[in-house]
Write a structure and sequence with these properties.
Helix content: 25-40%
Largest sheet: 4 strands, antiparallel
Strand order of the largest sheet: 7-1-8-9
Structural class: alpha/beta
Oligomer: single chain
Distance between the termini: 41 Å
Order of helices and strands: HHEEEHEHEHHHEEHEEH
Length: 231
């Protein structure tokens, strides 16, 4: 543990400014990442909302321009012509009640689930399994839809979901440390702009309180709010 502590302390010394622009932060963040694996880069946004009130819930999706560094395994639960459409769009597995039964039996080898509205009665039985993992299809995130081909393509292209937690913070990955700084900055900017657009009408006072970007093991870099709110 002491060894990791020393590495972290050395990395933390690279944080020289109280706040950075996205373009300034990314090269230093990459330098500060010290783990032996390709760390995930995450954005944490603290919002001035009270998620206990339904009208202040902030959630949505954004297609990151440069993806997340790996193609997600997408399964589609559908019937009729939609099965063929999903296959042609590149879904990794497509089926109906047979897929539901496989998941009930413990199969979880996928990163995203898309379903057609007519299959939600069957998919509903998977709530206890998929819900806690954030994999339950939902019309608000575009994963319950008749346009299964588009949904599959968006997830494969790097669509991520963001949702404010009960403490008023959104945590969302925007790439890997191995990405070029410009691509990380582009992805982070796309996420931040989507969260800004998702501001609830009932939110009072300052909407975004703080934004911090960090890698899995590295120190956090505060982002200058004026630089992103003006974008």
């Amino acid at each position: 543990m002491a060894k990791a502590g020393k590495k972290y302390a050395a990395s933390a010394k690279l944080v020289e400014k109280p706040a950075y622009t996205l373009t300034e932060a990314m090269p230093v963040l990459k330098k500060a990442a010290f783990a032996k694996f390709d760390e995930t880069v995450e954005v944490a946004m603290r919002l001035g909302v009270d998620p206990k009130h339904a009208d202040q819930m902030v959630r949505g999706t954004v297609v990151l321009p440069h993806g997340l560094g790996k193609s997600k395994r997408v399964i589609v639960i559908a019937s009729g012509d939609k099965v063929r459409e999903a296959r042609e769009a590149g879904a990794d597995e497509v089926g109906g009640d047979d897929i539901v039964q496989r998941i009930q039996g413990g199969w979880m080898d996928f990163d995203a689930v898309v379903a057609t509205p007519d299959m939600m009665k069957s998919v509903g039985r998977l709530g206890k399994v998929l819900g806690p993992r954030g994999l339950m299809p939902n019309p608000k995130t575009g994963t319950v839809t008749l346009d299964v081909a588009r949904a599959v393509r968006e997830v494969k292209a790097g669509k991520v979901e963001f949702r404010v937690d009960k403490t008023g913070i959104i945590h969302c990955p925007v790439g890997k440390v191995s990405f070029e700084p410009e691509k990380l900055a582009d992805n982070a900017a796309a996420l931040i702009q989507s969260v800004l657009k998702a501001k609830p009408a009932s939110a009072k006072g300052r909407y975004v309180r703080s934004i911090v970007i960090s890698s899995t093991m590295g120190p956090g870099f505060a982002i200058d709010l004026a630089s992103v709110e003006a974008a």
